[in-house]
Amino acid sequence: MNVLTFPLARHEDGRGWFAELVRASALPKPIRQANLSRSRQGVIRGLHYHERGQDDLFVCLEGMVRVVVLDRETGETFTEDIGDDNPVAIYIPGTYAHGYEALTDCLGEPRRARRPLGRRARPAPLEHDIADSLDTRRVAVTGAAGQLGCALAEAFSRDQAVLPLTRQDWDVTMPAPQLGRLELVLHAAAWTDVDGAEADPQGAAAVNVGGTQHAAELGAPLVCFSTDYVFDGEKRTPYVESDAPNPRSVYGRTKLNAEAAAGDEAWVVRTSWLFGWTSTNFVRTMLRLGAERDEVAVVDDQRGCPTYVGHLAEAVRALVELPYGVWHLAASGECTWAEFAEAIFDEAGLDCRVRGIASAELGRPARRPAYSVLRSEREGAPVLPHWREGLRACLERL
Ligand SMILES: NC(=O)c1ccc[n+]([C@@H]2O[C@H](COP(=O)([O-])OP(=O)(O)OC[C@H]3O[C@@H](n4cnc5c(N)ncnc54)[C@H](OP(=O)(O)O)[C@@H]3O)[C@@H](O)[C@H]2O)c1
User: Fold this and answer.
1) Which of 114, 194, 314, 381 is 20 to 30 A from 18 in CA distance terms?
2) What is the pLDDT, as a whole number, of residue 243?
3) What predicted TM-score, i.e. pTM, was given to this entire model?
């Protein structure tokens, strides 16, 4: 087979190691893209081939992985264990099907080389549509640059072929482009500026309602994400799926209408107070303010469930094995924003006081529910870890 193996000299002693990862001059084609993935032991990743012939170079930075290659025409196979015990890079021509299995917890880095002939007039709109899965399900993720979209793409790409779609790839206010066969659509793109929606209800509806309708038109089972803000917050016990929505903000109304636009073959996930390691969110804002100030003022008259996107993404993996319909998926436990801020400073070791204030003092354009704790009453509903556990998991990645 036409697979090339390059030794990677590694110089190591008790202090650590130093190694060359790639020597571009030794490769048949120039490098176009570099990806890095962390995989737990047993994970099988990236089983695919490239119809348009992009080549891959596999390097395992830490741990051991088993690279597998298949010549689809002759049926010939190649496999090699690479990493700590065998520091080599494997160069695989793109027409071969290939992937790898993590033999230990590990870091791996496939690098992609460009087709040698010609040059596209402009970059392909979807870099990731070049990966055509063999047995894996093709899963599209909209809003892939957002905090939840990132987490979903990461969680599902462990064993499925993920097509991450940013706004540049597809503005969801427009009908969907041709995306090929899809087994699942995770629709995380949304207008999430709650106050901004009050000033531009039509803009918010175009993204949230129109966008969901377009996502449903892709014709694959759909997961769409809704919010605790569909409730008015008058209750003092957790909201369950059978409670009647009564949104008090434009954003909440567009999300409720989006639930209806998702259609019948959809899981509608109501979740709340999301935070993750990317984008702007409460945790990242508090970490910044906590490092700059001695005191911050935070509202203490809204109670909900701060939900870590990593935990939500894992719950969504479990959810898609369950029946369609509305599901409440939010972190266990509950708190106010002020209590959440205190926990952030506590866990991050920041010496910053939290002064509790009333929502009215902030004078924000959109009304938020005073109480929006979400729980599921549905049989077999995935249970998420406590929000404080989510906070710790998030801080580890920041
Ligand atoms: N954040 C929360 O606290 C919360 C709570 C409950 C439910 N939810 C729901 O959870 C889902 C994910 O929220 P999130 O926190 O991950 O939001 P986010 O970080 O704001 O991400 C939303 C993504 O949607 C993209 N987007 C906006 N308009 C678009 C358009 N017209 N076409 C294509 N993409 C567009 C944004 O792209 P740009 O970056 O280019 O704008 C962004 O990457 C949403 O449905 C949201 O309503 C969120």
Assistant:
1) 114
2) 98
3) 0.72
